[in-house]
Amino acid sequence: MLQTEKKIRNSYTDDFSGRRKLVIGLMLLAMLGLIVKAVQLQVLDTQFLQKQARSRHVGTVQIAAYRGQIKDRNGESLAVSAPVGSVWVNPQYCKINTGKKAKLACLDLNNEIKLRQVAKLLGISLARVKKAFNPLSNKQFVYLKRRIKPYLAAKVKALGLPGVAIVREFKRFYPAGEVTAHLLGFTNVDDQGQEGLELMYNSTLEGVAGSKRVIRDGARRVIEEHDVESIKEPEAGQDLTLSIDERLQYLAYRELKAGVIKHKAEAGALVILEVETGNVLAIVNQPSFNPNSRRNMKVSHYRNRAITDVFEPGSTMKPLVVAAALEGGFVKENQLFTTKNLRIRGKWVKDGHDYGTLNLTGVLKKSSNVAASKIALSMPPEYFWRFYHSLGFGMSPGVGFPGEASGSLPEYLGWSAFEQATLSFGYRISMSVLQLARSYTVLADDGLLHSVSLLKRDRDEYAERVLSPETAIKVRTMIEQVVKKDGTAYKARVEGYRVAGKTGTVKKVKSGAYSDDYLSVFVGMAPASDPKLIIAVMVDSPHAGQYYGGLVAAPIFSRVMGGALRVLGIAPDEEQSMSVLLTK
Questions:
Q1: CATH no. for 68-241
Q2: pTM listed for this prediction
């Protein structure tokens, strides 16, 4: 019995000892495995671990590209982008980040003093600030305010409120303000073109955004002081050099605005063209707007009327009709025309006065509708239509501006004799101020019709001959008389310079019918001996008593043309006036 118990006890002891050795062995193996793994991690997998750690705290952010400048022909900046800061907040910051430092920072959200400071710095309401920080919001990104001055953004950040971050962006600024507003247009809050040249050339100006890796904190906020690396540098947009001369733009804007105010008009538009190149040197409109502050502005004020709006040009078409008839041999230079009221198939064409008998110069000087109608009816409809069409009427002028108008020119197959007659004094045809100015290049440059450009160029490669030089010079000489003392555009004269041009006074179309309002128009060139500039002016619905083109639009032309010729240093073509001008 005792021997049996002893055997059992010895057997149990041996079994326990074996199991203990097994356990110890397993523990030693486990420890050895850990040691091996530690060595592997420390020595062999360091780069792998670092990569894994970074992947949890490193992110990629976009770097805004600098938008290209828009400059005038002389290199003056018309649109520039300035660096600004945009302030945003993550309302979930205090939920996500539970560290001691974060908790202390979150206590500031209960302190209205700092919140009021934020509101004051950003110029927003306290309620808006509180709403942005509301942790009950499901959003993780809320802008407090975008595109503020960098020093203000820095002050907001210095307050140390939780979840606040600053992103660097750019804000567009227009030094000339309302003077160039219709032409340049503007960008939106994301610096994308929305109107005008900013929209037209957006892909050229906008550049390509870059990117960089950054370290984020526990709330996924970027720690700006710890950029990891640049992935791609931003590519700045290209600059744009316009045909516009800022000096002439200011001059034209000032005089058009003064004229619109003086005559209590609804609107106005003016274009200056360089004859030799077709470059647009100035293009202005009224009313305008401030592109740097567009609050409470009417959308209608954004229209570049000189390019997008069309109107019936009235008697400004008469010199072109005379040119067409002379060129085709349908009238003679010395031919006479009676101006007694003309009846065409039951409808009357009349003049404001009895002008008796007129030669071609007299027809233009007195602006006879009757004589112009007779000249128009002397031409076959197809020939007349083709001439108008060759001047670009009924077609886009081709500058590519958003909303650019083509105007209208009815097909000749549907013309009645009366319609053909009215086309001679600018009814039943429509065009923009830019198209009107362009058509007169055919008279100014000895028969060449120029294309027009808003970008600076040294020459016009697309000019087309429409008239012989002889015809163009003859008609140009005729319309010099329009600006003489007994002509309809005496107020268009410019001291020291010979001026050639034509007035237009047109009843305005409203809702498909002629109204009691008028459009006052003048288009002319100078110096008439060798024209360098063409200016077209349109004043919409003057309500101060006067409405004739020679009384409303012509004086605006005179002041702008006189100033432009002096700014550009164009010599007078009246030698006796040189000494007078030099003493001024």
A1: 3.90.1310.10
A2: 0.83
